[in-house]
């Protein structure tokens, strides 16, 4: 979906309005492209700002320029989230079924990560059509998401509309064999939750042989 | 750790250097504070930029000002990640043990999310001291993380140093009862992986009674 960022930078700086605009301006002047910015650990008027950057030319010059921005205390370079946590699968649904899907997905991701990939499996147990539809929609706004597994017994209505949207955003959608219309919009329907987790990882892993284009629309 | 953001905005804009600086400047001029920026769905020279903002005064005026920035095509308001996915627990370690911890954590999070909380459980199976230490350290740079569970049979060295760092950043660290020095730095040591997942959720859930300050340093 997104290009792999080249460099992550952690900046300890004053926590005040305009700080991000000042930092973004310096980064722009050095020709780099920002792919992610997060604020963590705000306390005592200071904040840690995490930037992920692409097309960084001279790293040392950029770091020195950021260091010179008014209000910046410390700058360090870090591995990017892409490098550390890699591509993400999101599992949404009912507790018991989310647990089973994740169990399969984590076991399978382990086998690929051992061979050098980085695949994360992230989850949220939820109840309610509105709540689930909102979470499905939000996966398209999260960074590094490649696949979504819907793990429940009844999903339709707003959730089905949301599935159409996230598929249009390029996210693979797998769902359990359940009641409701969501099945009709998924890329794959898998009856066994453990198998659903395993197949989803295989579909996105570059060290696996499963070709989603050959089985799209199938039920297992 | 961080304040809850007030508003998330999705902006479809030209994918070019300087776009973020221009948007950050407009947001600054309207007195809002940026807590998160992510880039998703880049294609055909366009990108979708997600901003999460705090201290937004007049939302309609801000949205109109962003809409007027050169290169912006569409602006919409969305629920924040804090509202949708809430607080996060990260589970790192070996496949089999990560699976068990997540199973407990998801089942317990389900019980709290049903009562209106939002707790996510995110995982990555990994092997190797350097790889695990790097992932542990990176959790302190991720947004909305409140607890980390280390699920393995042997962790020490660099991982132990990393645990000290993330605890200093305010993250609760739970580990399984395993070989290596990591146990000595954790907030809690729990032998059963399912119990480790359940207890970690209870420790951060506001609808649970477990008070971590009363059991910090204990082994179960």
What is the oligomeric state here? homodimer
Principal-axis shape of chain A: elongated
If helices are DSSP runs of H or I spanning 4 or more residues, what is the number of helices of chain A? 8
The succession of helices and strands of chain A, N to C, reads: EHEEHEHEHEHEHEEHH
Sketch the major β-sheet of chain A: 5 strands, parallel
Query: What is the strand tally of chain A?
Result: 9
Give the terminus-to-terminus CA distance of chain A: 27 Å
User: Low-confidence parts of chain A, pLDDT < 50 over ≥5 residues?
Assistant: none
Give me some keywords for this one:
five-stranded parallel beta sheet; alpha/beta; 9 strands; four-stranded antiparallel beta sheet; 220 residues; homodimer; 29% strand
In words, what does this structure look like?
2 copies of one chain form a homodimer. With 220 residues, chain A is of the alpha/beta class. Helix content of chain A is 37%, strand content 29%. Chain A has helices spanning 19-29, 59-67, 81-84, 95-113, 129-139, 158-168, 193-204, 212-215, and strands at 7-14, 33-43, 46-54, 72-78, 87-93, 119-125, 145-151, 172-176, 188-190. In chain A, the strands form 2 sheets. Chain A has a 5-stranded parallel sheet with strand order 6-5-7-8-9, with helices on both faces. Chain A has a 4-stranded antiparallel sheet with strand order 2-3-1-4, covered by helices on one side. Chain A starts with 6 loop residues before the first strand and ends in a 5-residue tail after the last helix. In chain A, helix 4 (95-113) packs parallel to helix 7 and helix 5 packs parallel to helix 6 (158-168). The interface between A and B is large, with 68 and 68 residues. Strand 6 of chain A pairs antiparallel with strand 6 of chain B, so a sheet runs across the interface.
């Amino acid at each position: 979906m997104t290009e792999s960022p080249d460099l992550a930078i952690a900046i300890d700086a004053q926590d005040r309005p305009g700080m991000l605009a000042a930092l973004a301006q310096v980064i722009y002047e050095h020709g780099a492209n920002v792919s992610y910015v997060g604020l963590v650990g705000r306390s005592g008027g200071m904040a840690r700002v995490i930037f992920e950057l692409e097309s960084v030319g001279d790293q040392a010059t950029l770091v020195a320029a950021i260091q010179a921005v008014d209000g910046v205390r410390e700058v360090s370079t870090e591995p990017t989230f892409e490098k550390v946590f890699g591509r993400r699968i999101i599992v949404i649904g009912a507790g018991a079924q989310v647990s089973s899907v994740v169990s399969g997905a984590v076991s399978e991701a382990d086998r690929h990560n051992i061979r050098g990939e980085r695949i994360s499996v992230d989850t949220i147990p939820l109840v309610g059509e509105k709540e689930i539809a909102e979470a499905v929609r939000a996966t398209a706004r999260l960074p590094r998401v490649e696949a979504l597994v819907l793990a429940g017994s009844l999903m339709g209505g707003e959730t089905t509309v949301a599935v159409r949207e996230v598929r249009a955003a390029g996210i693979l959608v797998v769902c359990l064999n359940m009641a409701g219309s969501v099945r009709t919009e998924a890329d794959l329907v898998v009856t066994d939750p453990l198998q659903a987790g395993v197949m989803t990882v295989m579909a996105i892993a570059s060290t696996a042989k499963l070709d989603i284009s050959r089985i799209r629309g199938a039920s297992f």
